[in-house]
Each structure stands twice: as structure tokens, then as C-alpha cells.
Automatic annotation (TrEMBL):
Residues 123-278 form the Aminoglycoside phosphotransferase domain. It comes from Vreelandella sedimenti. This is Aminoglycoside phosphotransferase family protein. GO terms for molecular function: transferase activity. Gene3D superfamilies: 3.90.1200.10. Keywords: Transferase. InterPro entries: Aminoglycoside_PTrfase, Kinase-like_dom_sf.
Length: 324
């Protein structure tokens, strides 16, 4: 099936689509680069019968289904069309979520974090299950979790009010845990490194002395803030909310690490107007400063025009008052 994007951004299909649950809809550029949100699975919250594994895109899952005797499954794709994980339902067993592409160092990092942080401090995360023996290829490269009922949201503004508060509360608990001897084998924080590099680059390219100074002052300030134990990838796609109980579960702890206080909060509340977002945070000076600087940077890397927006001005007013 092919679609054409016209000059006025209209999308037209060359035939009528008859879709059934489990089908995949992939919208790509003419170079076959998937567009944001693609591929999408039709009826993405439904469990598929094991027979649906016949689709070529699910080839990887077929072995796993037969090895675990699963009767149903739900595949999860990344934006680049790569298969990220699969939920499995097998008779007389709790549903599980198998996450792919986890090398040994990565698995050791996640297991250590569960053992020393998530379990002892009862953070709201899905239970990490032992990897069952005898799964051939998959035993080496997967992490198994208990499947948690819930849905994710595409923006923090869409999350139920109580869920937002619960996430901020859980983050407060996480940041107060001493890191002790806990160290990652994979120490890289790719997004944080990217954000810092981009800001320096943007400052220099702007050729605007005032803007360069502002961004450098922020950089100095954030370097003095406490580095705390953080989730490291807390966008709303990593927050599951149970539709009936409203219970919140934070998933995808793969990028846990030490990050500036306020980093997680800024990533999570991204898109909510600054003053409204600030109101969710406890009244802690360092947390609010870190939150504001990271929020500003997240806005700035989206485009050069950000600094002229009302949001940016409101953040700058706050920083001028509180940076001291
Ligand atoms: N324990 C779980 N229970 C239910 N669904 C989950 C669970 N873990 C992950 N998922 C689903 O799988 C998707 C991908 O998992 P995630 O750990 O976020 O991988 P990625 O690193 O690709 O973002 C999530 O967006 C979520 O929909
Ligand atoms: Mg994720």
C-alpha cells in the first residue's frame, strides 16, 4: 500500500484500506524513513492471538511465542519501526513483557538498580522477573518484566491530574536516595550530553552576546546544583496509568543515572505552561532552578525562536529572581 503526500500536506491513499487488529500501518517519507508515530498497530491495546504472528513484521516474535507457549501477544514498536518489546500471555502464568536488545552490561545495570533502589525503596515500577532458562537466543538479549495494565499518554497535559502529582512525588523519593556505591557499566547519558552540546552550539551560532551570556550563566548554575539519582528518560510514554485505579507505574528505567536535580521533572512536565508546571513541584530552591533551566534548554533546542516566546520570558524572570 502506498500513500502520497501532496504539496499542501494532504495524504492520499491509492486504495481503500481494510484493516484488522494486528495489522501495521507504516507511514514513511519517500526514502522509507518512518514518520513520527509510525508504525502504528491497528487496535494497539488489544491482545493478538498467537496465529497473528504470521505477519512478516512479527517474525522475531514467532520463536519466543512457541518457546513460552504463549496464546496471545502484543508487540510494541519504536518510532524507527524497530520492535522494542512484546507482551506475552501464556496459560496459568502472569502476563509478562519481554524487552529486546538488552546486552549484558545493560541488563546488569537494570538488575543492580532494581536490587538497590527500586525494590528496597518501593518505587512504582513493574516487577523485574528472572529470565527463564531455555529461551535460546532470547535468554541472552532480553529483560523480562511483569506486564502492567495501563495506558500511556502522548503529552503531560493529557495525563490525569492525580497521575501528574503521583509521578512528581515518586521522583522526590527517588532523588532523595543516596547513590552510594551504585555505578553504571554503561555510564553514558546520551540525551543529557546532547542537550548540553546543543545549547553551547546554539549560543555560539546566535552571535548574540546577551544570549551567549544567559546560556553560560545557566550552565554555571546547573553545574552547581546537586546531581541526584534520576530516571533519565521520563517522557509521558514511560508512564503507565491504570484506567480503573489511576495507579501510576514508571517503566523503562534503562537510562537511570545521576543527573541534575530537576532534569526528570522538566522532561516529564514538558509542554505544560511553565508557571502551571512549577506549581506541581515542591517548594525547593535547587529543584525549581534545575527544572527551569532544563525546561528552557528543552524549549531552546526545538528552535531558535524559543527565546522570544512568553514561556521563555517567564522562565527567565524566574531565574533572574532566584539564581542569586
Ligand atoms: N511492564 C510493562 N507492562 C506493560 N506494558 C509495558 C511494560 N513495559 C513496557 N511496556 C510497553 O512497551 C513499550 C516499550 O517499552 P519501553 O520499556 O518503554 O521501551 P523503549 O526503551 O523502547 O521505550 C512501552 O511504551 C509500553 O507501552
Ligand atoms: Mg520507553
Amino acid at each position: 500500500m502506498q500513500a502520497a503526500i501532496g504539496g499542501e500536506s494532504t495524504v492520499g491513499f491509492n486504495a481503500q484500506l481494510t484493516l484488522v487488529p494486528g495489522d501495521l500501518v507504516e507511514v514513511t517519507t519517500y526514502c522509507r524513513k518512518p514518520l513520527a508515530g509510525s508504525p502504528k498497530r491497528v487496535a494497539s491495546n488489544t491482545w493478538l492471538g498467537a496465529e497473528a504472528v504470521k505477519y512478516p513484521a512479527f517474525k522475531l516474535i514467532a520463536v519466543l511465542l512457541s518457546e513460552t507457549h504463549a496464546s496471545h501477544f502484543q508487540p510494541f514498536f519504536r518510532r524507527n519501526a524497530e520492535l522494542a518489546a512484546v507482551a506475552l500471555r501464556a496459560p496459568n502464568q502472569p502476563d509478562r513483557l519481554v524487552k529486546f536488545n538488552c546486552n549484558a552490561a545493560h541488563r546488569r545495570d537494570v538488575q543492580a538498580f532494581y536490587k538497590l533502589v527500586i525494590i528496597p525503596f518501593s518505587l512504582p515500577a513493574p516487577e523485574l522477573l528472572p529470565t527463564p532458562n531455555g529461551e535460546g537466543l532470547f535468554a541472552l538479549n532480553c529483560l523480562h518484566y511483569r506486564y502492567v495494565e495501563g495506558r500511556t499518554y502522548s503529552a503531560a497535559s493529557l495525563l490525569p491530574e492525580q497521575a501528574r502529582r503521583d509521578v512528581i512525588h515518586a521522583l522526590g523519593k527517588l532523588h532523595s536516595i543516596a547513590i552510594g556505591n551504585l555505578r553504571r557499566l554503561n555510564s553514558h547519558q546520551p540525551y543529557w550530553a546532547y542537550l548540553q552540546r546543543s545549547i553551547v552550539r546554539q549560543a555560539l551560532l546566535s552571535c548574540d552576546i546577551g544570549y551567549i551570556k544567559t546560556l553560560m550563566v545557566m550552565r554555571r548554575c546547573i553545574r552547581k546544583l546537586p546531581m541526584v539519582l534520576s530516571h533519565g528518560d521520563l517522557h509521558t510514554g514511560n508512564v503507565l496509568v491504570d484506567a480503573t485505579t489511576g495507579k501510576v507505574t514508571l517503566i523503562d528505567w534503562d537510562r537511570w543515572g545521576e543527573l541534575p536535580l530537576g532534569y526528570d521533572e522538566a522532561c516529564f512536565l514538558r509542554g505544560i505552561p511553565f508557571r502551571q508546571a512549577l506549581a506541581y513541584l515542591p517548594d525547593q530552591h535547587a529543584l525549581r532552578l534545575g527544572f527551569t533551566i532544563v525546561s528552557y534548554w528543552l524549549g531552546a533546542v526545538e528552535g531558535n525562536g524559543f527565546r522570544y516566546t512568553e514561556q521563555a520570558k517567564s522562565m527567565m524572570n524566574f531565574l533572574e529572581k532566584h539564581m542569586g
